[in-house]
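FORM 12-B: Structure-to-Sequence Request
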């Protein structure tokens, strides 16, 4: 059975670029794709509401078919998309599809130099992160897939004791023969080596040791330490484990990410604890 990837679209160019990125990374012969668009509820009288909703549903499906043709023409691939139009909010739609279709990955695009901070601070992404435990790949508008040679996992290493939470990352690193660098920032100056943590042994069991690096950084501000490392060591993918939304938001807060490399070309993969 093929793995399933859920592609979110509002028919914008940045959403389309995220789809191109996903198709380049995950070849259509090995995956099945769901193309999902949400359209809003209309608050009117019951009869009018039913009529308008049906019209919007038909228009949404027509737009999805047109979008699928644009993608096929651009990529030259004969891709078959399962098209879904959902009446309601994005988080509701993803939650519904997650239960019905069991996708392995959700892909969405974002726009502009401050795309990642903006979308993570936005209500849509915030509710989406909480809506499902499916890994979420956020692709900036200017990102182009050139392989996943270097992956950085930004996390508090003491929270990584459950191997199943990192299984999607393990599969991804294996698929692309990636080198994984685990960045661990510790405020306590008494810790001299990352090997002090038993969680390191867990990670070494999941990832080939010659492809696994640990970077132990002392910084009184965890988010700043991570952001500085990513700035100094560009990567193909940044991965964070969503234990609390505040950690992700702090990582991309303007005061931290300004002048650092958490911007327009590095995709972000959010895993769930």
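FORM 12-B RESPONSE
SEQUENCE OUT:
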């Amino acid at each position: 059975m093929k793995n399933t990837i859920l592609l979110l679209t509002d028919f914008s160019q940045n959403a389309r670029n995220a789809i191109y990125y996903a198709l380049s990374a995950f070849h259509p012969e090995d995956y099945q794709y769901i193309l999902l668009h949400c359209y809003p509820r209309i608050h009117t009288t019951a009869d009018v509401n039913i009529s308008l909703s049906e019209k919007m549903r038909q228009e949404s499906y027509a737009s999805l078919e047109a979008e699928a043709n644009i993608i096929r023409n651009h990529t030259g691939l004969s891709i078959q998309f399962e098209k879904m139009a959902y009446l309601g909010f994005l988080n509701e739609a993803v939650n519904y599809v997650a239960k019905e279709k069991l996708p392995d990955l959700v892909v969405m695009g974002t726009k502009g130099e401050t795309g990642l901070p903006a979308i993570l601070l936005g209500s849509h992404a915030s509710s989406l992160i909480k809506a499902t435990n499916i890994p979420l790949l956020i692709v900036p508008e200017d990102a182009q897939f050139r392989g996943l040679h270097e992956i950085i996992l930004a996390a508090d290493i003491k929270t990584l004791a459950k191997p199943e939470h990192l299984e999607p990352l393990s599969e991804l690193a294996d698929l692309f023969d990636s080198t994984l660098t685990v960045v661990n920032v510790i405020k306590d100056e008494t810790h001299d080596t990352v090997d002090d943590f038993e969680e390191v042994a867990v990670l070494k069991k999941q990832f080939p040791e010659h492809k696994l690096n640990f970077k132990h950084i002392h910084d009184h501000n965890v988010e700043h330490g991570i952001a500085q490392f990513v700035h100094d060591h560009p990567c193909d993918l940044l991965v964070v484990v969503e234990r609390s939304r505040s950690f992700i938001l702090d990582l991309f807060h303007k005061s931290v990410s300004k002048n650092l490399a958490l911007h327009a070309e590095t995709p972000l993969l959010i895993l769930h604890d």
